[in-house]
Amino acid sequence: MSATEIVFDNISKFYGEVLGVNRVHLSIPPGITSLVGPNGSGKTTLMNLMTGLLQPTEGTVRVLGLSPSDPEALFRKLGYCAQFDSFPKGASGRSFILGYLGVHGMTGREAREKTERALERVGLRDAAGRRVAAYSKGMRQRIKLAQALAHEPDVLVLDEPLNGLDPMARAEMIALFQELAGSGRHLIISSHILHEVDLISDQVILLNEGYVVAEGNIRGVRSEMQDRPLQVVIRCDHPTVLASRVFGLDSVVEARIHDDGAGLLVSTKDARKFFLLLNRVVLDCGLKIEAVAPADEDVHAVYQYLIGDEGQTQ
Amino acid sequence: MNRLWLRQIATVARLEVAKSLFTLRAAPLYLLAGIPVVAVGLILFFMIVFGDAPEELGTVGGTAMFYAHIYQVFILRIVIYTGCVWLFMNLFRGEVLDRSLHYYFLAPIRREVLVAGKFAAGLISAALLFVGTTVASLFLLYAHAGPLAALEHLVGGAGLGQLAGYVGVTLLACLGYGAVFLTIGLLLRNPIVPALLIFLWELINPFLPSLLKKISVVFYLEALLPVRIEDGPFAVIADPVSAWLAVPGLLIFAAVVLACAGWRIRRMEVSYGVD
Known about the structure:
The complex is a heterodimer.
Chain A: E1 6-15, E2 18-28, E3 31-36, H1 43-50, E4 58-63, H2 71-77, E5 78-81, H3 93-103, H4 108-121, H5 137-149, E6 155-159, H6 167-182, E7 186-190, H7 194-200, E8 203-208, E9 211-216, H8 218-224, E10 230-236, H9 239-246, E11 252-257, E12 263-268, H10 271-285, E13 289-294, H11 299-306
Parallel strand pairs in A: 3-7, 3-8, 5-6, 6-7
Antiparallel strand pairs in A: 1-2, 1-4, 8-9, 10-12, 10-13, 11-12
Helix pairs in contact in A: 3-4, 4-5, 9-10
Chain B: H1 3-21, H2 27-50, H3 60-98, H4 101-105, H5 111-142, H6 147-155, H7 159-187, H8 192-203, H9 210-213, H10 218-222, H11 243-266
């Protein structure tokens, strides 16, 4: 069993007769991994199984070689920012973090230092003395995040961590996630906000109705979907000329002039062959190309193809 | 038990005592613990105002017997019992209702150690409240004889032994009932019904057959009371249990019940949605 990966081995979880997740096999390497899927697809179930809040009906989970049934070892390496928007009664931001660091067995001084560092990281030092009950949604989200990362874990599991944050705070949190992942940590993030998932993820896991429908680097996932032609946007000075030439190529299944008249959207079933032939067409016609970019090689497109519109919010 | 566990138990106990005694949830406990003191205070007030003292309070022995009634019938069976139900059931049940139990489950602490820490917190809180109310009401009752007479009884007479006896029984009651209700709070979603059933069982204990009497906490506690009162004409007389059996028996009982709580919590899942 790998001590550097998070491994789900044939994991199933049923809530009575209701399926949570079924036959999940995953090996998650370090970096940012996003869990993507509609509501009820099994994202939170996977996170709760990883952290021992739920116990699998079948199969085993290992986080860096550790079992979730061994909290003493696991939670020195793992921090979980759960979706529950609730806090111990009467706690201030600072006492909330400090209290649970005490449960780790830290000395008072060590706990205070780590608390202040965590508060600094999420930008809540000034409000740390106030009661959490009086915090805004975004502040509550940030204090939960501070609590999860205060003990500087190797694995951070974050359930919808960007919910309720304003754009500025989102940008700050994303920068923090990238910094944490850059230092070799695992970040497992669930999110509905697909363009942000696209921006930050090293790999994605797409879930639907309790099953993993795709996993890996998003370009890799997209390239495996051979029944879906790749869409390429080409912006150039004479898109109509280009359109007439690419129609003749057998790798092209569709070519459409862009609405603004300055580009062409091409669907191809063999991207590599198409790009080789495109070079020749461009040279032959003397076209000036401004940009060539895949139009459906992102999480949003892959989500649409594999899961559809259900449950998607942004 | 290693040093880390002890530190963790101390931390959990500190956090939970603060929650048990210094939040709004503690208000009913303070009210409950205050009732015996207020009741004794009212008795004294009427004695002073109307100059009409109950006959029993005329002597030190009578006062001891009068307090024994108050303690056995009211403080032990109602105040301490109800207080322990509220306090110990809320240790886990309250956190499930507040949706904050997962923070403990996500900390590097063995769940059995968490049970120990929470139980210690419950015991400290209950002891502070109910030993406090036991001692305060006893002192207040003896105060009618004058501070000097009360002091003489407590220091020179049997008073100190009786006080120690009541404090010991109160602590053992908190221990026994606390273990039961902490575990029930972990096992059941609605612990009120079993709490009521156990209350009735403890209430009818004097009238139960000898064998059934022994399946209770109050039977062993009553055996330890410094001043015994009659249970009435319909009570079934059973062989009394010696202190040498009652005290270790209650301690072992509490340990076994807490072991059940430890077994349960290891398998516990956090899914607030169904609670």
